[in-house]
Amino acid sequence: MSSELNLAAIIYDNDDQPVDALLHTLAANLNQRGRRVAGLAMAINEQGLRREPMALQDLETGCEYSIAQNLGAESQSCCLDPYGLAEATGVLRSLLNNPPGLAIVNRFGQQEIDGKGCRAEFLQLLDAGIPVLTVVRRKFLHQWQEFCGGEAVDLPFSETAVQQWCDEVLKK
After folding, report:
1. What tens-digit pLDDT sequence spans the chain (172 residues)?
2. 39: burial class by Cβ within 10 Å (0-12, 13-18, 19+)?
3. Residue 68: CATH number of its domain
4. Number of helical H runs and strand E runs in the chain
5. For residues 130 and 7, what is the distance between their CA atoms, to the nearest angstrom?
6. Residue 2: inside a domain, yes or no?
7. Is residue 97 included in any domain, yes or no?
8. Which residues pair with 64 in a beta bridge?
9. HSE on the CB side for 149, CA within 13 Å?
10. Is residue 35 assigned to a domain?
11. Number of structural domains in the chain
């Protein structure tokens, strides 16, 4: 990947950090300023934390896509619904036909590490020259850096730092 990736990840430690609320707030603020920001973020609750059951929300339309499946009360398995996730990624693919100034991809996590999830959409958006912002849990930082060849900007969980990066990318 080239050094002109315009790719950044907000690095966070745990689900108690309202990283998804930061994505929603950032997108709303930039869109109000006339900068088109589009993509997917986790649907959030009143406390700004990831809502249960999990859903992805289209940042432009507000449409939600359930990505959780009910495996029963005794299940210890991951409840991620791969079919729901596949449906939601259509939002990201649609950005290739109508590119925003910035695309938000809800996260780079275990699914992407395994070659699934939004991995293909990350690559398609970057190949199209669309700047991408995502979030990465610190425990996946090594795999993230391998994925992007060390070319992405790792941002702290800080509204100021993230806003500064976005402003720089949107000036180009």
Report:
1. 444 689 999 999 998 899 999 999 999 999 999 999 999 999 987 777 666 778 999 999 999 998 886 555 554 445 567 788 889 999 999 999 999 999 999 999 998 999 998 999 999 999 999 999 999 999 999 999 999 999 999 999 999 999 999 999 999 7
2. buried
3. 3.40.50.300
4. 6, 7
5. 9
6. no
7. yes
8. 57
9. 8
10. yes
11. 1
